[in-house]
Write a structure and sequence with these properties.
10 strands, globular, 10-stranded parallel sheet, 13% helix, 57% strand, 129 residues, mainly beta
Length: 129
């Protein structure tokens, strides 16, 4: 595949994410160590270690993996999560997700088949920042 063909394939693959409103996409073969700050929605199918700050939805696919402190408006995940998660509105885990760590969310939803080991703190829905 030529570089031009690869570029066209990438644009086609990410066009759907842009149409859905995603501002950031981290692919399966990508790894990020450090601090990630996202204004808008983000989709993670790779590995993130460190800190994540999101103003909107952080979505973690089956192939995504997070080992981080995460602060976001909403989180929906299917992949493994480890760390501290502070969510303004809702944290939703879909099978086969796993979560180890601290959870601070007013709404916490689990699908059958999800594994959670940690501390859960639930309170009132916080206004968006």
């Amino acid at each position: 595949m030529t570089p031009l063909d690869q570029s066209a394939a990438f644009q086609t693959a990410t066009a759907g994410l842009e149409e859905e409103g995603y501002q950031m996409y981290l692919g399966q073969k990508c790894r990020l160590n450090g601090v990630l700050k996202v204004q808008g929605m983000a989709r993670i199918d790779g590995f993130v270690e460190g800190e994540i700050y999101g103003s909107d939805l952080i979505q973690v696919g089956k192939d995504g993996k997070i080992e981080a402190t995460v602060k976001a408006k909403d989180i929906v995940a299917q992949g493994p999560l480890r760390g501290d998660f502070v969510v303004q509105q809702k944290l939703q885990l879909l099978a086969p997700a796993t979560l180890e760590g601290k959870i601070d969310a007013p709404v916490f939803l689990l699908e059958e088949g999800v594994f959670v080991n940690g501390i859960l703190k639930m309170g009132v829905v916080r206004p968006a920042v």
